[in-house]
TrEMBL record:
It comes from the Bacteria. Residues 339-399 form the Reductase C-terminal domain. Its cofactor is FAD. Residues 15-300 form the FAD/NAD(P)-binding domain. Keywords: FAD, Flavoprotein, Oxidoreductase. It comes from Streptomyces durmitorensis. InterPro entries: FAD-oxidoreductase/Apoptosis, FAD/NAD-bd_sf, FAD/NAD-binding_dom, FAD/NAD-linked_Rdtase_dimer_sf, Reductase_C. This is NAD(P)/FAD-dependent oxidoreductase.
């Protein structure tokens, strides 16, 4: 039987952070900022210290930046943190407060931060040309090795990663086709109107699109689409969404008998990022599903680079207060989501949650042109819930002009600390 290295009740057990990427790193820093002086151990299944993923579909894939350049710097306050890298956490017991690693060892903790992010969804199709995804450094380096002048790249999926990979592959000389079922690229994130403007700009730079189509079959050097047409390909990139890494918590023996945390599309948290309302367990980053009072009570995951840091600032204070048996006194977590995406010389900059709007309005620019900046506003009723700018270097400033409007909370919202509570496990 595996031995428990120390009892959870011992003060030395400290806080365990599961996931050694952006969310894990920011959580460790924010625990120190929140006054936690005890041990912090970060467990990560990748062999690397935290690195930055955005360059993996851009500069690293283009060969303009090295893998080493993606390393994330950390604050000196976490110089003493223990990093357990190449150490996958296989299960957690939320009652006994222990983690079991893939090597069978059992580790006690007092407080838990779940920061395990997501992994790429894979296409359930056999065969085909060499197939890639882009999530890790290794993924990006392996795809980079296949790209070059005249290489026929088929990108399946037209979300932000699909569009970024298409742009980068085209930049380095590939013949690129994007296939996706939606009417326009990036529809989920930015709506059809801005998606159309984006597609036209990609097409002007040589990317081909087969929108409204699915891949039915993969042959040796081609894909067969659902209308029977063929699309030649030397390399296939699957960019068809992500799956949250929650299985290790699914094996949890803690909580209400027979009931662990709700792991439907991520780890369900309350409005303070506590897992199942527990005072000693929080989740941050891509894997966390939480209600944001700006957009109603529905809990959502938000896969944006800014989110792990925003989550960590709130969750660390809540967790440290919870471990001390104190009230945290914070209003519910209500971040303003934001993301950017660089494709060719284009920047897409979003603030808010355009996807919760019921209509989009062109606020600035000429949507028909393939040059110049355009800005769309997304409205839920009369309320502005998101703004996206598409353009060059000015896109951030253009979208940023609407930030103050987007920061306004819905009228009559009562933000007591108990808003968005979950029944405790
Ligand atoms: C190619 C790419 C480009 C991107 N570009 C942009 C962009 O331009 N703009 C933007 O806003 N966002 C971008 N993003 C999104 C952004 O990088 C993510 O939102 C961010 O990485 C989320 O950080 P995280 O720590 O929550 O999750 P992750 O970065 O996914 O980290 C989770 C970590 O936990 C590890 N892990 C999982 N399960 C276990 C386990 N059981 N035990 C131990 N460790 C485990 C994982 O291997 C991983 O290392 C991009 C993402 C990718 C992949």
């Amino acid at each position: 039987m595996a031995s428990v290295e120390s009892a959870a009740s011992e003060a030395s057990a400290g806080i365990a952070v599961v996931g050694a990427s952006l969310g894990g790193l920011r959580a460790a820093e924010q625990l120190r900022a929140a006054g936690w002086e005890g041990p912090v151990t970060v467990y990560g299944d990748e062999p690397h210290r935290p690195y930055n993923r955005p360059p993996l579909s851009k500069e690293v894939l283009a060969g303009e930046a090295t893998a080493a350049a993606t390393a994330l710097r950390h604050r000196p306050s976490i110089d003493d943190v223990t990093w357990r890298l190449g150490a996958a956490v296989e299960s957690a017991d939320l009652t006994a407060r222990t983690l079991t690693l893939a090597d069978g060892s059992v580790h006690a903790y007092e407080g838990l931060v779940a920061a395990t992010g997501v992994r790429p969804r894979r296409l359930p199709l056999p065969g085909g040309p060499p197939r890639h995804v882009v999530r890790t450094l290794e993924d990006s380096v392996a795809l980079r090795a296949e790209l070059g002048d005249g290489v026929r790249v088929l990108v399946i999926g037209a979300g932000f990663i699909g569009c970024e990979v298409a742009a980068t592959a085209r930049k380095v000389g590939c013949e690129v086709t994007v296939v996706a079922p939606e009417a326009e690229p990036m529809t989920l994130a930015v709506g059809e109107e801005l998606g159309r403007a984006l597609r036209r700009r990609h097409e002007a730079r040589g990317v081909r699109f087969r929108m409204g189509r699915l891949v039915a079959e993969l042959g040796d050097e081609c894909a067969v689409l659902d209308d029977g047409s063929e699309c030649a390909a030397d390399v296939v990139v699957e960019a068809v969404g992500s799956l949250p890494n929650v299985e290790w918590l699914g094996a949890s023996e803690g909580g209400t008998p027979g009931l662990g945390p709700d792991l439907t599309d991520g780890i369900l948290c309350d409005a303070h990022l506590r897992i199942g309302g527990l005072p000693h367990a929080v989740a941050v980053g891509d894997v966390a599903r939480f209600p944001n009072p700006r957009y109603g009570a529905l809990a959502r995951r938000v896969e944006h680079w800014s989110m792990p840091a925003d989550c960590a600032r709130h969750a660390a204070r809540v967790l440290v207060a919870g471990l001390r048996g104190e009230a945290h006194g914070l209003a519910p977590f209500a971040p303003l989501p934001s993301f950017w995406s660089d494709q060719f010389d284009l920047r897409v900059q979003s603030f808010g949650l355009p996807g919760v709007g019921d209509r989009a309005e062109l606020l600035e620019g000429d949507a028909e042109s393939v040059e110049g900046d355009v800005v769309y506003g997304y409205y839920g009723g009369e309320r502005l819930v998101g703004v996206v700018a598409l353009g060059g270097s000015k896109a951030v400033a253009l979208a940023g002009r609407y930030r103050a409007d987007l920061m306004e909370l819905p009228d009559g919202l009562d933000l007591s600390p108990s808003w968005g509570s979950l029944p405790a496990l």
